Amino acid sequence: MYVALTGATGFVGSYTVRSLVGAGHRIRVLVRPTRDTSWLEELGIEICRGEMTDEEALYALVEGADAVIHTAYDSTAESEQLNYLRSNIFGSLTLLEFSRRATVRQFICTTSTYLLRSDIYAPADVCQTPIAEDSPLVSPQNSYVMHNTVLESACRTYYAQFGMNTTAFRCAWIYGIHPNLKKTVWRDIFETVQTDTRYESTFGCDVVAADDVAKALAAAVDNPAAFGQVFNLCDMFVYNQELAQLAREVTDGKAAIVQSKLPKPAAISSEGLKKLGVDVHQGMAGIRAYFEDLHALI
Question: Is residue 160 part of a domain?
């Protein structure tokens, strides 16, 4: 398959590139003009330079492709709403429409489990209602959730109205080694337990490993079980105090972890992924392995 990918130099995209290469796909990627693409070129990947606001670049990306995977998200536009709309929302919709016009066989994108529930900041936020793929979506409270709501809705519409094979993956908080090590998730917790004397937090979130996200995206390519579907990509829910305890074990940190008794919310089900032969449930063992890799790097 000839796969066009956005966000290749980003977090999820960089993992997805390797999954697609491993599956034997031919790949073309959209990359910002200033980004280093040497590692992509070494893998034999075709480079298309441009922004998500560049219509010529978007059409060049999708022309002749069998499938499009959209993982790009422009966080730099968050400070200016109009730029945010142009890059993230209108850019995503333009990519979807150009994919249709180019008769791309499948459009795959990543959204977020924030469509189903927010992070937990205190025990009062915990909800025990089970959540599945067909659970009601939350009302958007910020531009990020609005963007994901629009994108997922557009995928459903293009499948129903045009018969285009669309697939959306709602990703939980994604962990893994970031291409920019300074941006690696939970690094702040990791360093705090080594340098401070005390750690306390009641924050918690749903999580999933980056390599599992990439595996799911690759498994969806040209897979009829994925056509017209929305999947939850969530391994488990975890509190920061649990992460801090694990980080202390991995690093032999000395910080005292304040152990508050915190209720676990009902799980976000990822049962639908069984249709794709994918299992994202690594549990705490997966996070430990990630922390061990991070410890070796920093």
Answer: yes
In a domain, 24, yes or no: yes
Instruction: Give which of 109, 103, 4, 100 is closest to 50, Cα–Cα.
Output: 4
Nearest to 45 by CA among 71, 64, 25, 67: 25
The answer as to whether 275 is a domain residue is no
Distance CA 205, CA 174 (A): 10
Find the CATH number of the domain harbouring 65.
3.40.50.720
pLDDT confidence band for 145 (50 / 70 / 90): very high
Q: Residue 179, by phi and psi: left (phi above 0), alpha (psi -120 to 50) or beta? A: alpha
pLDDT digits (tens, 9 = 90+) for 240-274: 999 999 999 999 988 899 988 999 999 999 999 99
Residue 283 lies in a domain: no
CA nearest to 119, candidates 231, 247, 238, 259: 238
The CA distance from 16 to 38, in Å, is 17
Please give the residue range of the domain that contains residue 146: 2-115+132-175+208-235
Q: Taking Cα atoms as reference points, which of 112, 80, 150 lies closest to residue 233?
A: 112
Please count the structural domains in the chain. Answer: 1
Residue 229: phi and psi, rounded to 5, are: -105, 155
Instruction: Output the pTM of the full model.
Output: 0.96
Q: Is 86 helix (H, G, I), strand (E, B) or coil?
A: helix
What would you measure as the largest C-alpha separation in the chain, in angstroms?
59
Please report where in the chains the tokens 């017209």 appear, as a residue.
228
Rounded distance, CA 243 to CA 185, Å? Answer: 11
DSSP 97: H
Phi, psi of 289 (to 5 degrees): -60, -40
11, two tokens: 């977090």
Burial of 137 (0-12, 13-18, 19+ CB in 10 A): middle
